[in-house]
Design goal:
CATH topology of the largest domain in chain C: FAD/NAD(P)-binding domain
CATH class of the largest domain in chain B: Alpha Beta
Oligomer: heterotrimer
Number of helices of chain B: 10
Largest sheet of chain C: 7 strands, mixed
CATH class of the largest domain in chain C: Alpha Beta
Chains: A mainly beta (about 80), B alpha/beta (about 375), C alpha/beta (about 425)
Distance between the termini of chain B: 41 Å
Number of domains of chain C: 3
CATH topology of the largest domain in chain B: FAD/NAD(P)-binding domain
Largest sheet of chain B: 8 strands, mixed
Strand content of chain C: 25-35%
Order of helices and strands of chain B: EHEHEHEHEHEEHEEEEHEEHEEHEEEH
Distance between the termini of chain C: 23 Å
Largest interface: A-C, 35 and 37 residues
CATH superfamily of the largest domain in chain C: FAD/NAD(P)-binding domain
Shape of chain B: globular
CATH architecture of the largest domain in chain B: 3-Layer(bba) Sandwich
Structural class of chain B: alpha/beta
Number of strands of chain C: 22
Radius of gyration of chain C: 22 Å
CATH architecture of the largest domain in chain C: 3-Layer(bba) Sandwich
Number of domains of chain B: 2
């Protein structure tokens, strides 16, 4: 797991260990995953893909559960936070 | 549960019953509303909440347009959770034949003072870029709107309560008639007038009325702000609503204020179970994707069904029924219950106080149906 | 978007210990056995990240899974059962359908979340959740972590985090000292692997384990900065980078309910052969009762053996299962939630995180359905999985029946193109 992957979170470059999830990349990048209905910044809650707090846009597709998606080189992640 | 004597007991706290309760309470009647479950739990909970002027027939138009105007007058006092939005409807035409229908509709509405705009293919694409390419155009009816029905029903009930109406929830009604509403727990309410506003369940209480269940499916997506701007309905919708014998689907999508997209619609006769019917859901979604390909990749969060209360002539039953002088009906609104709820309440109250209504009441009188029959599937 | 239907003699849903054990047991028959799980690899929650090369009990089981050629359908999530003997699943490639003769549901459990002020801050998450995130690459070395809530999972998580360099400030368990002591003695009495699990005490040597303790407020500006813990009537504020907080487990029963299986007290009703109330459908592991890894392995084996007609072999495991069930009952008693936890949420505390519905709003309603319709609580993508158990604890509301899809899916995946094949079957489940 020493290989590093580079991807972007809201346009900023983030480097993670290979095998990391996108949710982790967002946390490392200091971004909240989503903004709640009443404006709260949210991050992952359940870690197993059922709470939907970790939703983010990955490579143009909205509402993807980032805790269950592995980072890939040059992925573009956009959060609404 | 308390017993008591009321001027009016309304059975059914859906949006129609709620509107009736409010109008009767406004006339200073002693009102009780009873329901076996929660406020707005039947078709009110299941439907789209579209407020639409419908030109299906002159009588349909009169009722929907009148009621729509009542909603507009009420909008300032509607609480936020009713989510009233005047987003307008666009009737979508896919070919020349449907464009001809657009022109006919436009003329019908204009003649009656409903502001409309005929949209060319380019204008339609500009207003709704996510519709598939190659549409012929459409008709924009800008005064149509949408709202969230359960909260609207609750708002009407609360207004009625503020005027003294009593609301009793949670006990099923087993029998109504001759001034008495009897519940399954044995308790009773006595009323000068009983209003059967029980929607798809109305025939269980008043056996001989011409109301049948018409099942529908809906799907709601996650939030995609801007994906859809107006309530979009295919012109084939009326063919679907018209069909009295077969199952049908029609393209019908609604933007909710949350940014979620509500997708319908389907109609089935004879389906009595509330489980999701995969075959009709498939047809409905295939139709939706045909009109709006980008829906394919949206995240569908929930699917549900509901039962509309349908009558043979597609007009509701509003008025006295049968030999029992205490019994009135306010049901049979099919897919227009949200729109026509306020007018229904008015028409009912007008009849109870013996006053002329703003529109003729004859087309909706239940007595007209004694010579009609539902077509059998 | 549906490839041809895959057919299995025995299909197992859920790749945690119960599912793996069921699959291994069934595969020895030579029949076609499939295992579906929505994670990229098997292991479920407790064995997340384990492989055949790991240095653990999990490794042996996973090695057998490969040896017996169980068809692993990972990255797939079951969302519907459109016809008898058919499941629909979603993967990143679209929708797929699996046909089965026998179905074993090993869908595991999820953490129970109880709302308290600040629980929606970033870096406040479940206990298992933090462990899962660290396994998915979250750097935790040197970070301060408060572990709170209830259940044996707290100890396992604390040990794991500590082994990965976290500064675990303390474990704050709501159960009483007496209850835990009684449980500890019971555990010692089981010997073997269970005692091993609880010898975590050695690993957690310098980590205080506090009982009668629970979080009352999480503080921070968008992100967690400190946690206020109530302990013995006193409040203590602890600076922290993460709060790993979960209140024991609730079973994932949605698929079983969709299939029509009966529940009892919220768990799946099964007979001595792990059969549910629906013909050809079995259930093993946490959905039948929260009992931990050992019980899950036994139940999984029994279900797998019965599914291939080896009831005699299954019966050999009955006495061990009885013993493990007593452990499960002890778990239940020990980690029962105390009533003080009902007061953690204030009227302003969000209960439904998908729709930001506060406790005060919910409490005005008469039932789950009433609240759902009028506040939209439970109408979000979690479909009530997070807020439902909280509402049940706080307000006594029982959840409604389940409709497909049991997880949100891409709209196009709701389109069933293979229905022509089912014309003879009833479509009503």
């Amino acid at each position: 797991m020493s290989e590093q992957i580079e991807l972007s979170v809201n346009g900023r470059r983030v480097t993670v260990a290979a095998g990391s999830s996108v949710a982790v990349a967002m946390m490392i990048g200091g971004a909240s995953c989503r903004t709640s209905v009443s404006g709260e910044p949210r991050g992952p809650l359940c870690g197993m893909g059922i709470c939907y707090e970790c939703r983010a846009e990955i490579d143009g597709v909205a509402h993807r559960r980032s805790c269950q998606i592995a980072c890939m080189s040059r992925m573009a992640i956009k959060t609404d936070g | 549960m308390s017993a008591g004597k009321y001027d009016v007991v309304i059975v059914g706290a859906g949006i129609v019953g709620a509107a009736c309760a409010l109008e009767c309470a406004r006339e200073k009647m002693r009102v009780a509303v009873v329901d076996h479950d929660v406020i707005g739990g039947g078709a009110t909970a299941a439907g789209m909440g579209h407020i639409v002027a419908m030109d299906d027939s002159d009588a349909q138009f009169a009722l929907t347009r009148f009621s729509q105007q009542l909603w507009q007058q009420a909008r300032a006092e509607l609480p936020d959770d009713v989510e009233y939005t005047q987003c307008g409807t666009i009737w979508v035409a896919t070919d020349d034949e449907e464009m001809a229908e657009v022109h006919r509709k436009a003329s019908y509405y204009e003649h009656r003072g409903v502001p409309v705009q005929i949209l060319t293919a380019e204008e339609l694409e500009r207003l709704e870029p996510n519709l598939r390419k190659g549409m012929a155009g459409g008709l924009l009816v800008s005064e149509d709107g949408v709202l969230y029905p359960p909260c609207a029903a609750r708002f009407l009930v609360e207004k009625a309560q503020a005027l003294g109406a009593i609301v009793q929830l949670g006990a099923p009604v087993s029998e109504i008639g001759n001034g008495r509403v009897r519940r399954a727990d044995g308790s009773e309410l006595w009323a000068g007038v009983i209003v059967n506003a029980a929607g798809a369940w109305a025939p269980e209480l008043t056996r001989d009325i011409s109301v049948k269940k018409r099942k529908g499916h809906l799907v709601i997506t996650d939030r995609y702000p801007g994906l859809v701007q107006h309530q979009l309905v295919e012109l084939g919708y009326l063919k679907s609503a018209h069909s009295v014998t077969s199952d049908s689907v029609a393209f019908n999508v609604q933007p909710r204020r949350t940014g979620q997209v509500l997708i319908g619609s389907s109609r089935q006769y004879g389906a009595e179970h509330k489980e999701v019917d995969h075959e009709i859901l498939t047809r409905m979604l295939q139709r939706a994707q045909e009109y709006m390909p980008s829906l394919a990749q949206t995240c569908a969060i929930r699917v549900w069904t509901g039962f509309r209360a349908a009558t043979p002539d597609k007009l509701p039953l509003i008025g006295p029924w049968g030999e029992d002088s205490t019994l009135y009906l306010a049901t049979g609104h099919e897919g227009l219950g949200i729109t026509t709820s306020l007018a229904t309440g008015r028409l009912l109250a007008d009849q109870l106080v013996g006053r002329a209504s703003m529109i003729p009441r004859e087309p909706y009188l239940p007595s007209r149906t004694t010579t009609m029959e539902h077509a059998h599937v | 978007m549906v490839s041809a239907r895959k057919q299995f003699d025995v299909l197992i849903v859920g790749g945690g210990p119960a599912g793996i054990a069921a699959a291994v047991s069934a595969a020895q028959s030579g029949k076609r056995v499939g295992l579906v799980d929505d994670n990229p690899a098997v292991g479920g929650q407790i064995w997340r990240g384990e492989t055949a090369q790991s240095d653990s009990e999990a490794a042996a089981w996973i090695a057998k899974l490969h040896a017996w050629e169980v068809e692993l359908c990972t990255g797939m999530r079951v969302f519907d059962a459109p016809a008898p003997g058919v499941l629909r699943v979603e993967s990143s490639a679209g929708a797929h359908e699996f046909e089965y003769r026998k179905l074993i549901l090993a869908t595991g459990a999820r953490e129970r979340f109880l709302p308290f002020p600040g629980w929606t801050l970033q870096n406040v998450m479940g206990a298992g959740a933090l462990q899962a995130l660290v396994k998915s690459g979250l750097p935790i070395s040197g970070k301060r972590v408060v572990v709170a809530g209830s259940g044996p999972l707290l100890l396992a998580v604390a040990a794991y985090l500590k082994n990965h360099g976290a500064k675990v400030v303390g474990i704050y368990e709501q159960a009483s000292r007496a209850a835990l002591a009684k449980f500890g003695l019971k555990v010692a009495g089981y010997g073997g692997k269970l005692a091993q699990a609880f010898s975590l005490r050695r690993e957690l040597r310098n980590v205080p384990l506090m009982t009668n303790a629970w979080p009352v407020v999480a503080k921070g500006d968008g992100v967690l900065q400190s946690v206020v813990i109530s302990r013995g009537g006193k409040h203590e504020e602890i600076a922290s980078d993460y709060l790993a907080c979960g209140f024991h487990l609730v079973p994932n029963t949605e698929l079983t309910v969709l299939l029509g299986c009966r529940l009892q007290n919220g768990f799946v009703e099964i007979d001595h052969l792990q059969q549910t109330s629906v013909a050809n459908v079995f259930c093993a592991g946490e959905p039948t009762g929260i009992g931990g890894v050992e019980l899950s392995l036994i139940e999984g084996q029994i279900a797998g053996l019965v599914a291939i007609g080896k009831q005699d072999s299954a019966e050999d495991l009955f006495s061990v299962r009885r013993k493990m069930r007593r452990f499960a009952e002890a778990l239940d008693r020990t980690f029962a939630l105390r009533p003080e936890l009902k007061a953690l949420a204030s009227a302003e505390t969000i209960v439904c995180r998908c729709e930001d519905v506060k406790y005060g709003q919910l409490a005005q309603h008469r039932s789950w359905r009433d609240a759902k319709l009028h506040t939209r609580c439970g109408m979000g993508p979690c479909q009530g999985r997070i807020c439902g158990p909280a509402a049940q604890f706080l307000l006594g509301w029982t959840p409604e029946s389940v409709r497909p899809p049991i997880f949100p899916v891409a709209l196009e995946n709701l389109i069933c193109e293979t229905l022509e094949q089912d014309k003879e079957h009833t479509l009503v489940m």
